[in-house]
Here is the input.
Amino acid sequence: MDIVLRTALMYLVVLILLRITTRRIMRSATPLDMVVIFFFGGIATPPILGDDRSITGALLAACTLAGLHTMLSHLKRVWPVVGMITEGNPVVVFANGDWDRTALRRMRVDPRDVMAEMRQQGISRIDDVQSAIVEHSGAITVVPKR
Amino acid sequence: MVSDPEGSDIEIEANQGFESVWSRAQFLLQVVIGAVVCAGLLGMFGNGWMSTSTRHFSGMPLAVTYQRLMRANAPADLIVAITGRLPGDVLELGVGSELLDRASIGSTRPGAAAISATAKGETFTFRLGPDHAGHITLKLSVRRPGPVGMTLLANGERLELPLFVYP
Here is the structure.
């Protein structure tokens, strides 16, 4: 029982910490983002298993993680607010030639990150961009001018 | 071939047959995962309501609380509670070799006054306090999985404690 509860607690703690720390990990992980993942991975495991080195304990922890993740994925579909809390919303950081400095600061996104995405899409001038959006997945969508 | 035979190397057609089977298998696996987590919460894999058992010695005021379902390579406690006044100043607790073949007793709380080992098992001698009451905790560390017929002896009286160890 204790493993299930400890796993659930650590899952929620790491989820909240990742949510408030960074959202770019899945798409464009920089060393700054990767260090968070490596450390969280290492820090979260010992409190869950402790001295328990059994296969059953590891299996139970893995099943709890999988079960929680599946449950949250379903809940997110039923109640969008769950998705907003766990993943966030898309945020426009550049539109009509102006940077939204407040949004950039809140998202902790640098204009260089947006420009890197522009270059990957073959856009070389900022004047050719209609808007740039930081998606809930962490990806940066660049919409070119028509 | 992953995609439907209707597709080509470039154009991929969804393999509806496979997707349908996979969807059912995925749902079944999710149900199994849910069942495993519920069983874990109830203590079917140790450390919970279903795994904790308390047994009493018939001729002595001693209650033994232990995990009848435990995990190998995971710590577990065996607690002997003195529920009434015991005759004498000493309590001798013997653990049979059936358990010691699979597990080790790392420590006891309070510490034993004396420990003696024979082919039949280990005997821990505890000096009782002035009120002749309290708890004795044996810290178990089980190494090998499988069913175990553990025997506990208290001042010569035998108590059978069957348990199962998960891998």
